[in-house]
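Progress note, sequence design subtask.
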């Protein structure tokens, strides 16, 4: 029987992750019973230490990429978006409200403030501590004399004309999974949360947090939380599906709204892609907070690196449980991940039979290009290595299990591009699960055509039934160009939003060509806005279109991009 996959939760971790994985047949890591590194997935709310990225084994995954604070800290996000704005233009990077980082930019803020007409009455500002979340420490003000702070904060122009439902303000919590930064591979989930304020929006009372902030952590303590609030109902959350239904009666180009949100996600991620080291075995779930104004224009408020997985109400349950389950599907655990169990089992046997030298380290990682980073982490990494090396399965053991033809390479991370170890990491280049399994099995055993005796637990890696049929259909539709890395078009509710066409696939394969990506994004947005396909120029492009397709994220039943564009062309 196949060994179960093992998950490890830091600090007892999110209960929801535990529940989903146990239901799928995983086992929870118990440090009294297992060796330090005998696990497949390590989940933690906070960042991992750099040494933990360095010492990853082929079958181990972490739920954070290294160095993503560039978008998840409020001040870093501002700096990165500003840099992109300066390089690629303010017409493109216009989705974040004007922001100042205080105290450093106090003078610039003052200058901007003084330029505003009728400043006491008109413009509102919102002040937020840079490293707090859940609405803590936030306040609104109009008059400069009300700006009081004792820590690093961002002061941001308040979007004072939000779209309201029955008079209540709301924002969207969009779930984004970055499966890889090198090459950039992004999925956005079809389900999301609509988070409402619980008192009617009113600009004459800026101090009422229940009217101006949409954080659940605040509103669930509001006096009107349980009251029926017009169309909003009781509580403070809707699912995205309910919001889509609301949008249908709004007489707007719904697809264009989704595409603009999709653009915000891609453009924000582009701002850090170059600085995130390559770590193929990491996957990260980000929470993008988007506010829609009364003109249906989406704004980015912030990016969360640890979106809440708490279950406060039924809506949470219906959105978040599917989300985590789809995330596990996206992690794409395959036969190779079961080698953990085999390795640790065999290690014990080898130790007793051959008295193997278990302190032999696994061969070294690809070297980091970032010299300073290396220096800084050398010491801690060495300490960590010393601490853990006696528990790493020896190379002989790994070879014995993986087969002599299999090169044993730890996955770790590097700042270089495309350091793939395809034989032991996610396999997006195989077209079907069976093919993937065959490839892994034969390479693992160093044999051709002979199937591994190891069979992964079907519960733990297959798509849920309701998506399997649809996914197969789309995978058939989207044949990969020969020799290119084509990530699956979807995994359950997660829709691949980047790369979205042959040009962006090509632009992301070696060193990300941001300019090409931006041009393609603009082209697609114009097409979605007008609902028309631009003239294609050559045969090559048409051929590529046949080979690589994407789904349009957002609408309830997302159409294939090519089919949607073709149908629009025929109709015009
Ligand atoms: P936190 O990390 O503390 O949740 P956010 O930046 O998400 O901080 O802000 C909390 C809430 O404040 C948001 O959910 C939103 O309702 C409101 N908010 C934040 N910034 C703005 C803004 N610029 N305009 C309008 N509302 C905002």
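Output:
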């Amino acid at each position: 029987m196949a060994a179960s996959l093992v998950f490890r939760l830091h600090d007892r971790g999110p209960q929801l992750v535990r529940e989903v994985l146990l239901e799928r047949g995983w086992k929870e890591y118990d440090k009294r019973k297992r060796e330090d590194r005998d696990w497949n997935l390590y989940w933690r709310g906070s960042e991992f230490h750099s040494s933990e990225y360095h010492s990853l084994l082929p079958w181990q995954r972490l739920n954070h990429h290294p160095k993503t604070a560039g978008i998840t800290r409020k001040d870093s996000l501002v700096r990165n978006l500003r840099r992109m704005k300066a390089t690629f233009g303010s017409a493109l990077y216009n989705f974040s409200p004007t922001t100042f980082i205080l105290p450093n930019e106090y003078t610039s803020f003052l200058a901007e403030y003084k330029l505003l007409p009728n400043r006491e009455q008109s413009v509102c500002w919102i002040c937020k501590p840079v490293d707090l979340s859940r609405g803590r420490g936030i306040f609104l003000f109009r008059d400069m004399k009300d700006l009081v702070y004792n820590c690093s904060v961002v002061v941001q122009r308040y979007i004072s004309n939000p779209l309201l439902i029955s008079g209540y303000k709301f924002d969207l919590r969009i779930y984004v999974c970055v499966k890889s930064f090198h090459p950039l591979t992004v999925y956005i989930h079809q389900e999301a949360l609509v988070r409402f304020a619980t008192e009617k929006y009113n600009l004459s009372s800026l101090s009422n947090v229940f009217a101006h902030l949409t954080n659940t952590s605040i509103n669930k303590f509001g006096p009107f939380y349980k009251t029926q609030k017009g169309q909003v109902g009781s509580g403070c959350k809707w699912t995205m599906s309910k919001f889509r239904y609301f949008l249908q009666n709004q007489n707007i180009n719904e697809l264009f709204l989704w595409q603009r949100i999709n653009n915000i996600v891609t453009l924000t991620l582009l701002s850090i892609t170059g600085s995130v080291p390559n770590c193929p075995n990491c996957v990260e779930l980000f929470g993008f907070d988007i506010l829609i104004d009364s003109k249906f224009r989406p704004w980015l408020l912030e990016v969360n690196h640890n979106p809440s997985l708490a279950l406060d109400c039924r809506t949470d349950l219906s959105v978040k449980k599917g989300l985590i389950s789809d995330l596990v599907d996206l992690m794409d655990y395959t036969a190779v991940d079961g080698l953990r169990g085999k390795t640790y089992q065999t290690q014990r046997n080898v130790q007793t039979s051959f008295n193997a030298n278990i302190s032999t380290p696994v061969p070294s990682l690809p070297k980091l290009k970032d010299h300073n980073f290396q220096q800084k982490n050398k010491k801690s990494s060495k300490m960590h290595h010393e601490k853990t090396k006696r528990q790493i399965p020896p190379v002989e053991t790994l070879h014995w299990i993986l087969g002599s033809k299999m090169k044993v390479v730890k996955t770790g991370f590097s700042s270089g591009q495309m350091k793939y170890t395809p034989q032991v990491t996610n396999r997006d280049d195989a077209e079907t699960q069976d093919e993937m399994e065959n490839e892994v099995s034969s390479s693992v055993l160093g044999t051709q055509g002979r199937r591994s005796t190891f069979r992964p637990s079907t519960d733990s890696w297959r798509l849920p039934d309701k998506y399997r049929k649809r996914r197969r259909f789309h995978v058939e539709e989207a044949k990969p160009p020969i020799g290119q890395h084509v990530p699956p078009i979807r995994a359950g509710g997660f829709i691949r939003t980047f790369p979205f066409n042959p040009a962006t696939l090509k632009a992301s394969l070696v060193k990300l060509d941001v300019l090409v990506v931006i041009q393609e994004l603009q082209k697609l947005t114009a097409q979605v806005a007008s609902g028309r396909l631009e003239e294609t120029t050559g045969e090559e492009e048409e051929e590529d279109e046949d080979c690589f397709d994407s789904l349009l994220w957002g609408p309830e039943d997302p159409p294939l991009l090519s089919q949607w564009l073709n149908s629009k062309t025929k109709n015009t």
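The chain is about 40% helix and 15% strand. Work on this subtask will continue into the next period as scheduled.
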